[in-house]
Amino acid sequence: MVGLYFTRVKLGSPPKEYFVQIDTGSDILWVACSPCTGCPSSSGLNIQLEFFNPDSSSTSSRIPCSDDRCTAALQTGEAVCQTSNSASSPCGYTFTYGDGSGTSGYYVSDTMYFDTVMGNEQTANSSASIVFGCSNSQSGDLTKTDRAVDGIFGFGQHQLSVVSQLNSLGVSPKVFSHCLKGSDNGGGILVLGEIVEPGLVYTPLVPSQPHYNLNLESIVVNGQKLAIDSSLFTTSNTQGTIVDSGTTLAYLADGAYDPFVNAITAAVSPSVRSLVSKGNQCFVTSSSVDSSFPTVTLYFMGGVAMTVKPENYLLQQASIDNNVLWCIGWQRNQGQQITILGDLVLKDKIFVYDLANMRMGWTDYDCSTSVNVTTSSGKNQFVNTGQFDVNGGSRRRGAPPYGGLVPTVLVAVALVFGASSSRGR
């Protein structure tokens, strides 16, 4: 019910595990550090929260303002150094997310651990030294205990993202993939590498954007193209379509919202009763959603289609006798012409973020099954999401099946997700 996809990452010497939200809408990996203002000390997700302490890790070092990596981060706004600071002052950061929450702290360098699958189902311990954030202040939703995790794992494109760092170190290719399981208990897999599946279709990423922007061209409901001016979807500073695993639902550009909702309402089965609940368009039905509601298709540059099933735009709100109250889960992006495709749309699909070729691919998929991953040698190997559930016996009873950081076949880190959906950003 919280709506959060998260996994765990192992950092420091001796290594400790931290639970982090997966967020393709931001760049930096950060974890809560000790001491921390506003950081929750307990979580409603049935996980034990940890605080990273750089002084307790023998491999940790603080990044000073004079460090080249800090200088580069200053250019992209991901670092803060006051002009009055000395060169040895710590390289700091302050981030504000789309939901108004925020964090600030300083950068450290330390070891991240993972297992490399060697191709014959043998694993080898691996590690890399990476730069990540040490958060000593949090605000907004980040302070809430019901959905508290230890930090956020940003999977953006900038130089300080772990994806970019591991690629520059030669540890993984410049591509990552995820498959978010949509059932109540969530789960899924994320691979630093390329998931290969025959049904994958690709569309170009919009270049030189801070987020993963796609060129959305039209929306079709029940075979009918919506009467929306396509210029509404053109990417600019105030417009565009973003893919973001850190957003729970989906947000439709203000000008596209009413045509979308009206088309869904007009296309539902006659046995479905429409009503408005708390300002949202809702429906009451005793039938399955697939038989009662239309399929939506998003068309992107190159005529590439993304099928959006009813479960990808509806949320179940209540059950009354044999009837279910479903409401449209896509929200109006009030006064904004930006469309955000969050977990509600991304679930039950493979997504491949191919940064080397500046394109994104997807296909419908059962994310509880194994995936096929390309290795650095060009061979394919199946990786089963279930095989990562057993992780050294450290899982607490009653907790969802979190997985560890497990790279697959020389390429890549495969993360198995716990919980469901993710927090709006």
Could you outline the blueprint of secondary structure elements for this entry?
Layout lengths: L5 E6 L4 E8 L5 E9 L23 E2 L5 H8 L16 E5 L5 E16 L5 E17 L11 E4 L7 H7 L6 E6 L7 E4 L2 E3 L4 E4 L7 E3 L1 E6 L2 E2 L13 E5 L6 E4 H14 L5 E5 L2 E6 L3 H4 L3 E5 L3 E5 L5 E7 L2 E6 L1 E4 L3 E5 L1 H4 L2 E6 L4 E6 L6 E4 L5 E4 L21 E4 L3 E5 L9
Parallel strand pairs: 2-8, 3-7, 16-25, 17-24
Antiparallel strand pairs: 1-2, 1-6, 3-8, 4-6, 5-6, 6-7, 9-10, 9-26, 10-31, 11-28, 12-27, 13-16, 14-15, 14-20, 17-25, 18-19, 19-23, 20-21, 22-23, 26-27, 28-29, 30-31
Number of helices: 5
What percentage of the residues does DSSP assign to strands (E)? 35-45%
Strand order of the largest sheet: 12-27-26-9-10-31-30
What's the shape?
globular
Head-to-tail CA distance between termini: 17 Å
The CATH superfamily title of the largest domain: Acid Proteases
Instruction: Tell me the name of the CATH class of the largest domain.
Output: Mainly Beta
**Could you report the average pLDDT, rounded to the nearest whole number?**
85
**Total beta strand runs:** 31
Query: Could you describe the largest sheet, including whether it forms a barrel?
Result: 7 strands, antiparallel
Structural class: mainly beta
Q: In the CATH scheme, what's the topology name of the largest domain?
A: Cathepsin D, subunit A, domain 1
Name of the CATH architecture of the largest domain: Beta Barrel
Protein name: Peptidase A1 domain-containing protein
InterPro entries: Aspartic_peptidase_A1 (IPR001461), Pepsin-like_plant (IPR034161), PEPTIDASE_A1 (IPR033121), Peptidase_aspartic_dom_sf (IPR021109), TAXi_C (IPR032799), TAXi_N (IPR032861)
Family: Belongs to the peptidase A1 family.
Organism: Oryza brachyantha (malo sina)
